[in-house]
């Protein structure tokens, strides 16, 4: 793996050391070493099945909920081991929120989609204020302020996805994980979410899995390229991690260059 030495001087919020993930004893992702700087947007790219979502899910311990999944190595949030017995996974998931491929609002009112999480987490402040703050953060407040009691499922797909981001924000996370957040959205909603990701990085660190290379080059400060290696059993590896312009313009690995230039499928001569 290649990485810029400038990274070392950064304020690192999340770090992985030799992280491997297994499903039923089968290795899906091997020995990943990554440092995620605070308030940056980091993109995960690579072919299908190389372990991007698997790694993302290990950051907020969602793999704990997958039967037969095992994570080895060390993952630290602000220097603390997230897999330590003393860490409550529910609290960890407040600090490291997640937005999925398809918008998944609860079939409740727009207001309750945000307020319910606050109640569960014992929030004692002014709920109305935090609901408004969260909706403003995602640019949804003006669009929904007059219909907060309407069912969230009446919103468009793009609005629903912004509501899901607002729901994560309301829990005041440090990191927001996004697993292909625009893949089910139209181009206008996609552009809005891309713009939003850039705005959100002032307050949060974002890690975004995407198959859209143009999107990665537009919204990410850094990009990690993963690939499948191995003869019979293909295992995901981190190939290269660096600043976005380096990954797209002068990567150090041939595999990265072939993937980002779209020459990947060319038959071997
Ligand atoms: N719950 C699971 N049980 C067993 N194997 C799994 C599970 N989830 C993922 N895998 C396997 O782990 C490997 C990595 O999958 P993962 O979904 O993380 O890749 P990905 O890079 O995110 O793929 P895509 O880009 O298609 O979403 C694949 O071989 C997949 O089949």
From TrEMBL:
> Pfam families this protein is in?
ABC_tran
Which controlled-vocabulary keywords does the entry list?
A: ATP-binding, Nucleotide-binding, Transport
Report the GO molecular function annotations.
ATP binding; ATP hydrolysis activity; phosphate transmembrane transporter activity
**Where does the signal sequence lie?**
none
**This protein's record includes keyword Ligase:** no
- Cellular component aspect of the GO annotation: membrane
Biological processes, Gene Ontology terms = phosphate ion transmembrane transport
Q: Which superkingdom?
A: Bacteria
Give the InterPro entries listed for this entry: AAA+_ATPase (IPR003593), ABC_transporter-like_ATP-bd (IPR003439), ABC_transporter-like_CS (IPR017871), P-loop_NTPase (IPR027417), PstB-like (IPR005670)
* ABC transporter domain sequence ranges: 14-254
Q: What's this protein's name?
A: Phosphate ABC transporter, ATP-binding protein
Give the species this sequence originates from: Dactylococcopsis salina (strain PCC 8305) (Myxobactron salinum)
């Amino acid at each position: 793996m290649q990485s810029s030495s400038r990274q070392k001087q950064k304020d690192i919020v999340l770090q992985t050391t030799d992280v491997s993930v297994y499903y039923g004893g089968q290795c899906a992702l091997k020995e990943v070493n990554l440092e995620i700087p605070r308030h940056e947007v980091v993109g995960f790219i690579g072919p299908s099945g190389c372990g991007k979502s698997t790694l993302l899910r290990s950051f907020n311990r969602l793999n704990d909920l997958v039967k037969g999944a095992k994570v080895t190595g060390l993952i630290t949030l602000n220097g603390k081991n997230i897999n330590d017995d003393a860490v409550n996974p529910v609290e960890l998931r407040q600090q490291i929120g997640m937005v999925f491929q398809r918008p998944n609002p609860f079939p409740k009112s727009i207001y309750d989609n945000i307020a319910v999480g606050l109640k569960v987490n014992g929030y004692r402040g002014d709920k109305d204020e935090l609901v408004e703050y969260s909706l403003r953060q995602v640019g949804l407040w003006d669009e929904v302020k007059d219909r907060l009691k309407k069912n969230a499922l009446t919103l468009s797909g793009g609005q629903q996805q912004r509501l899901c981001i607002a729901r994560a924000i309301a829990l005041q996370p440090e990191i927001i994980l996004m697993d292909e957040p625009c893949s089910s959205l139209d181009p206008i909603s996609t552009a809005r979410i891309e713009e939003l990701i850039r705005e959100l990085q002032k307050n949060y660190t974002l890690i975004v899995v995407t198959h859209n290379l143009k999107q990665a080059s537009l919204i990410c400060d850094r990009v990690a390229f993963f690939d499948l290696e191995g003869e019979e059993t293909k295992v995901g590896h981190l190939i290269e991690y660096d600043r976005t312009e380096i990954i797209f313009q002068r990567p150090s690995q041939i595999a990265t260059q072939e993937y980002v230039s779209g020459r990947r499928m060319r038959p071997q001569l």
